[in-house]
Amino acid sequence: MTKWATVSRCASYDVLVKLVQNVAKVDATRYNLQLYSLAFTISGIGRPRIENDNDVSCMMNEDKLILELKDIDSKLQFQ
């Protein structure tokens, strides 16, 4: 399923993570999010990971951007 959300160009990493958690309905106490952007280049598609405010700023300065929620890793430890 694909969902759209409006993101401010001056959004911080924390704001972006909270937005993704809300849109994807992900429980932050149970899962770690890994955010990636899709970058289209002459040589193919890159998937830079978004890890901090600087990454968000660079991503938001692109004319065309697509945010991808790639992995949701459980924080729960099974014993």
Automatic annotation (TrEMBL):
Per the record, the domain of life is Eukaryota
Protein's name according to its UniProt entry: Uncharacterized protein
